[in-house]
Design goal:
single chain, 378 residues, two-stranded antiparallel ribbon, two-stranded antiparallel sheet, 6 strands
């Protein structure tokens, strides 16, 4: 973090683009003010999550919070974005993604119907010029991708992240907190890369999610539902393509992979488990990381905060990679390398520790193993 505070180009960019700060603040205020009204409307319409099953709450909770998040994204975006073709593609895609999620919240969609809606939303920014046509890696350098590969690859990426955020939305405040961390990190990196629109959109996600946590952190008074999870996943995935992957930064590919590592790992783990036990990939279970924390005795609040801390450690590693000049012009800088190594060690250590908690501790506790076996059998 010291590297970020002392990095002159970041502060120069921030002072020249104060719209990033105002957009985040406006998003926060809009969501804080409108979420209670959206929750009341959801109760009147009967769009609530009832207790039971995998749910840990003891009373019905409205689940249309995504509509408040939608307004919290659209209002500041229209106020502060330069409405070029790419920006219009993002905003139109946001509207479609939120609509598909809201329909699912109201009456439920079959997995194939939801997937078609997600593909339709993901195809919109691609049609407006946002797709992966190149990315940059250390040593390899800039690698170009032809349009016929890059366009479907971008749609696949956006749909995947939308579903990953949706899968992560299982505990009060979890998805909103993770997306806030991701949005803030993307905003800082995009601003340093002079990607102003991407920085503003990411900052809006940060502000909207922090505002939503006012009502969504444990004990939650409203859930974001599929409408909110799909909206946030869509925006983060699209911004990663628009503002990070297509830049000349030598480790651009590492930024979104590090920042979104937790939902990526969570989804990969769950899919592997379902394939192992020959269950449908779309089936509901308690194999997600957040449920596994509850299985070993964590409270909802503790599990949420632990995963937030894990995400923050990975985001710090991404920021260090961007702002700490540990390797320049073919030369390694000792103290910068030590600083980046410390951030990397913290992220790796946190990841190893959590794997130890979820896997090794479980092996030593027969009650946990028995509980998980009963859940799989059910």
């Amino acid at each position: 973090m010291l590297a970020l505070v002392s990095h002159p180009s970041f502060w120069d960019e921030l002072s020249d683009h104060t719209a990033v700060i105002w957009a985040a603040l406006l998003a926060l205020v809009v969501v804080v003010m409108l979420t209670p009204a959206v929750g009341g409307m959801a109760r009147l319409l009967g769009v609530v999550d009832k207790p039971g099953g995998r749910r840990h709450h003891g009373r019905p909770i409205p689940r249309l919070g995504g509509l408040a998040l939608f307004l919290g994204v659209i209002v500041p975006a229209l106020a502060f974005l330069k409405l070029n073709s790419e920006a219009r593609g993002i905003l139109l895609g946001v509207a479609v993604a939120t609509t598909v999620g809201a329909i699912d919240d109201f009456r439920g969609l079959r997995p194939l119907e939801k997937l078609v809606g997600q593909i339709a939303a993901a195809a919109i920014p691609v049609g407006f010029g946002i797709w992966i046509d190149h990315f940059t890696l250390p040593v390899v350098g800039v690698h170009s991708i032809s349009g016929w590969v890059g366009k479907p690859l971008t749609v696949l990426w956006i749909v995947a992240i939308m579903n990953m955020v949706n899968f992560l939305d299982g505990l009060d405040g979890l998805a909103a907190g993770v997306c806030a961390i991701a949005g803030g990190t993307f905003s800082v990196i995009a601003l340093s890369l002079q990607q102003t629109n991407a920085a503003i959109v990411s900052a809006v996600v940060l502000g909207a999610c922090v505002g939503f946590l006012r009502h969504n952190f444990y004990p939650a008074r409203i859930f974001m539902g599929d409408s909110g999870a799909m909206l946030l996943g869509f925006v983060l995935a699209t911004v990663a393509v628009q503002g990070l992957l297509k830049t000349a930064a030598t480790v651009a590919l590492a930024f979104p992979l590090l920042v979104l590592a937790v939902p990526i790992l969570d989804t990969g783990f769950v899919i592997a488990k379902r394939l192992k036990y020959r269950r449908p990939i779309t089936s509901a279970d308690r194999e997600h990381l957040h449920y596994r924390f509850l299985n070993i005795g964590f409270s909802v609040r503790r599990a949420t905060l632990t995963i937030w801390l894990w995400c923050a450690s990975l985001a710090a590693a991404a920021l260090g990679t961007r702002f700490i000049p540990f390797h320049q012009h073919g030369h390694w800088h000792l103290w910068s390398t030590v600083g980046e190594s410390v951030l990397g060690a913290i992220a790796v250590g946190m990841s190893v520790y959590l794997v130890y908690l979820l896997e090794i501790v479980k092996l030593g506790n027969p009650r946990i193993r028995r509980r998980e076996n009963e859940q799989r059998a059910a």
